[in-house]
Each structure stands twice: as C-alpha cells, then as structure tokens.
Amino acid sequence: MKYILAILFSFAVTASYAQLVSLNKEEVANLGHLLKNDKEANALYAIVKRRADDALAQTPNPIDTVVSEGHLATDPKKIRTIQSLKDIDKIYSLSIAYVVDGNKKYLSKTGEFILAWATTNRPQGNPINDTKFEDLLIAYDLLKNNLPAEDDKMINSWLEQMADAEIKTGQSKTKITSLNNWNSHRLKVIGLIAYILNNDKYKNYIAEELPVQIEKNLLPDGSGFDFRERDALHYHVYTLEPLISLATVLKRATGKDFYHYSSPSGASIEKSIAFLIPFVSGEKMHAEFVNSKVAFDKKRAVNKEAGYEIGAPFKRTAGVNVLVEASYFDPSCMDVVRKAMGISSVVYPTWQAVINEVRK
After folding, report:
1. 17 — pLDDT class (breaks 50, 70, 90)
2. What pLDDT does 9 receive?
3. pTM of whole model > 0.85?
4. Is the model's pLDDT at 219 over the cut of 90?
5. N or C terminus of the chain with fewer C-beta within 10 Å?
6. How far apart are the C-alpha atoms of 331 and 339, rounded to whole Å?
7. What value, to the nearest 5°, has the Cα angle with vertex 110 and ends 202 and 254?
8. How far apart are CA 278 and CA 180, in angstroms?
C-alpha cells in the first residue's frame, strides 16, 4: 500500500474520464486507508492478492466464443468455457492488487489478460454469456487510463462490438428474452460499457430501456416475471443482480436512483429485494422449480446439476451476494446477510461489502 499515492497521481494526470464502474481516485485512497486500519477488510484483501500473485505466473486462456447459456454442465463446450472464464477472477484480482500495492507487474499482467480476451473473443450478443465479463469490465475501468493507448484502442473496439451485438439481439420486443432475466443482463453489459467508454449512444439506450425493464420484469408485489416463469428464487436473484449492478453505476454517474425508482405499475428493485428478504432471513421457505414452465430446468434436474433440483428448498446463502449489492442503497440488507451467514459480529462478510464501504 506504500505506492498508493503514486497511483493516485497517475490517475489524476492520465484520466480521460472518471472511473464510474470501478473505483475513482478518492475511493482508491479510501480502500488503502481501510485495508491499513481494518483487520477484517485486510484479511479479505489477502485472498484477492493471493489470487493475483498466483496469476502472475500464468498465461491467458481466452476463448473465441463463450458457450454457457442453454448447455448442460456436462457439455464439453461448456466445460471448456468454464475453464477459460477462470481468467476473469484473475483479471479482477490483478487489477485490485495493482491499485493497492502499486507494483506495475500487476498492471502489466492485467493488461496482458484483458488484451488476450479482446483479440480472441467474438461477442455473439448473448447476455447470459456476456454477463460473465462483469469483473473484467470492472478491472478494465479501474486501469484503463494506465494501459498503453494501442491496447486501449483494441479493448475499446471489442467492448463496442459486445455492446452493439447486445443491442442488435435485443431489438425484437416480441421474444421472451426482451423482458426476462436475459434483458436485465443485457442492460447491465451495455450500461457498464457505456460508462467505461463514456459512450452517449449506449448511455441513451440504458436511460430509455432500464425503466421499461423494471416495469416489465418486476411486479408491484415484489415478485417478478422470472420468479413466476421459473417458480424459483434462483431466477429472482439472477434478474436482480444485474439490475442492481447497473443501478449502482447510474447512481454514481448521474445521481439518478433506479433502486428506489417506482415504475408506473408500482414495481421497483427495492420492492423485489423486500420480497426476497424473508427467504434469506429464514422466515419463509420456497421449494424451487416445482412449477417451472421452462423445459431446460427439468433437463438440468435430470442431469443432477447442483442448485437445480426440483423441489429443493431455496438456500438462504444463495441470496447473500444480491443483498450485499443492495446494501449500497439500503445498508439494513447487511443485517439479513449476517443472519443468513451466521456471522452477526462480522462487519465485512464479503469483498463486495468492502467495496461498498469505500464507495460511500
């Protein structure tokens, strides 16, 4: 952490536009201070740094086409994708290690990994596949002003291809994927790229489409289309996670609060989190996928994939990550997180909780 002032200076003199998806220079300073003075936060950082150190000795393993959505866990193409996507956690960890410790070996390795993906991967406009790049997008936003200009140019072109492909596949408003969790992930991907690249076309797309998605995807009683379609809180969580990620970026970038925003029908992200909370706290239980209308859910159950057993009770801890994300807007969500995890005295149960703290 001794290099953190030098990094802040670098951010100040090279920044072409602000880090709104990751951490800005003041927040990086907050992170350094917190890690220096808080044992819990520092212990979580030690895990991140260990991953970064391991990644220094590894080479990128990009794949031209991500194959995940609609494929069973036993599909060889999906297995190959999962192996390649381990790069994403390495990229994120390397970027955090750089801004905390200041060693340029982390910066160089982060750039090597991101550039390898940018020059190999070809976006297909599938949001369930593209959503897996979220931590790579965060890492690039964090370091984009410190990478070589030629690398930035190639990476930015790749991100534009990704956003444009998502917009193209989202044009049909008659498909179910224009309103279900697919579209929530689509908007997140486009939105993060919009504010990484400072691209007005993408920003305007999000400004127009996000309120529509909240109206179509979520319901006034706090449930949502995905919950009713799949009869699974798993998918309720899965549609809320990208919406909250995007809402966080928009709050930081524009001041507009889409977490508390209420659609014309009265639907809101806030209400949908409130709907989930009793199931995470343990007050309520839900048997997952019993009345799902989607045939693929049954295929995964027959394939004995973890988390997709028909009739299995929703696991409280499966709601932890989305509630930690929601705590950026509503800190009381952390009380439910601690209850679900059985760690009442822990201040920072996850690394995301640390990030939320320094973003205040």
Report:
1. low
2. 37
3. yes
4. yes
5. C
6. 14
7. 30
8. 23
Q: Is the pLDDT at 32 greater than 70, yes or no?
A: yes
Please give the pLDDT value at position 30. 98
Instruction: Summarize pLDDT for 242-282 with one digit per residue, the tens.
Output: 999 999 999 999 999 999 999 999 999 999 999 999 999 99
Average pLDDT in the 87-98 region?
98
Q: What is the pLDDT at residue 140?
A: 98
β partners of residue 287: 313
43-49 contacts: CB < 8 A, separation 24 or more? 44/348, 44/350, 44/351, 44/354, 45/96, 45/100, 45/351, 45/354, 47/351, 48/92, 48/93, 48/96, 48/97, 48/351, 49/93, 49/96, 49/97, 49/100, 49/101
Please name the residues in contact with 357: beta carbons below 8 A apart, sequence gap of 6 or more.
Answer: 30, 34, 41, 348
203 to 79, 137, 199: CA distances (angstroms): 34, 16, 6
pLDDT tops 90 at residue 49: yes
- Asked if 127 and 163 touch (Cβ cutoff 8 Å), the reply is no
Other beta carbons less than 10 A from residue 208's beta carbon: 9
Q: Under 8 Å CB-to-CB from 331, ≥6 apart: which residues?
A: none
User: 231 near 288, Cβ under 8 Å?
Assistant: yes
List the domains of the chain with CATH numbers: 1-169 (1.50.10.100), 209-360 (no CATH)
Instruction: Single out the residue of 229, 248, 242, 336 nearest to residue 290, CA to CA.
Output: 229
| Cβ pair 244, 259 in contact under 8 A | yes
Share of the chain above pLDDT 90, in %: 94
